[in-house]
Amino acid sequence: MQHLLRVVPVIGVLNDRKAFKPTPNPAEVDAVFDAPLEMFIKEENRSAEEREWMGEKYLLHFFDYEIENKRYLIWGLTAGILIRAASVVYQRPPAFLEQSPKFKFPGLVDK
Question: Is 38 helix (H, G, I), strand (E, B) or coil?
């Protein structure tokens, strides 16, 4: 059985960006950087692959982003969360098909 995962995104506003000192878990986070939120509802710098999960097809989104001569690839769950956040903040859907999987949860989950 595949692992069930629950993610709770937390979004905040920084009053003093220079005072923000993140301490990410290196096993979970490759880099901390700024990216424009609006990028995640635009077609530019985006690609997608069709995947299947538990019999349901969905699109896995990838966003290429470059800042200060460094390239980042934002994809998967992170991209999906940012697409949804940008849609809420800008009050409009993305300029592309989002197509998330229809999540089905088994009746019994082994702990």
Answer: helix
39-86: pLDDT as tens digits:
999 999 999 999 987 788 889 999 999 999 999 999 988 999 999 999
- Judge if pTM exceeds 0.85: no
All residues at 6 or more sequence positions from 106 whose CB lies less than 8 Å from its CB, including other chains: 1
Picking from 103, 100, 105, the residue whose alpha carbon sits closest to that of residue 58 is 100
CA distances from 80 to 60, 68, 87 (A): 8, 24, 11
Q: How far is CA 104 from CA 32, 62, 108, 109, in A?
A: 32, 24, 12, 12
